[in-house]
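Continuing the batch. This is chain 6 of the set; chains 1 through 5 are on the previous pages. Same settings as before, nothing changed between runs. Recording input and output for traceability.
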Amino acid sequence: MKTLLKSLLLFFLIITYGCENNKLCTTPPAGFSFELVDKTTGENLFTNGTYNSKDIIVKNLDDSSAKVEFKLISENNYNVLTFSSIGWKTETINYSVNIGEKKIFEFYVKAKRITKDCSHTEYDGFEIKNASYQFNQNTGIYKILIDTSI
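Output for chain 6:
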């Protein structure tokens, strides 16, 4: 969680101070973070042992041969799946997140990288499919709600 907060602080500092006085600057794209939680209890499913981080499989649905970059950040018994490489270029992302053979959710992102004096990323589309979720605007984390009784 500290890593995420440090990244957000750096992001806001760059936005606030990096583009003054016609200086060249680059604003990194916002990453995407997902917490997998039990729909009933709200418990993190990696923290409580329901899921094992070694079983995470992320598939590119548009190009099965492409390697997908992701990281499971584990700090203070809080586990969040992050994707930080999306949006560094204009691209369309269509991923499936699985735990072993079980498909947990899919997500779609359409990113457009704007390169002018201050480069930045605009997101023209974002969608989470096949899962219920909640978005926390304070942390920027999507909580994927999973029914573990199935």
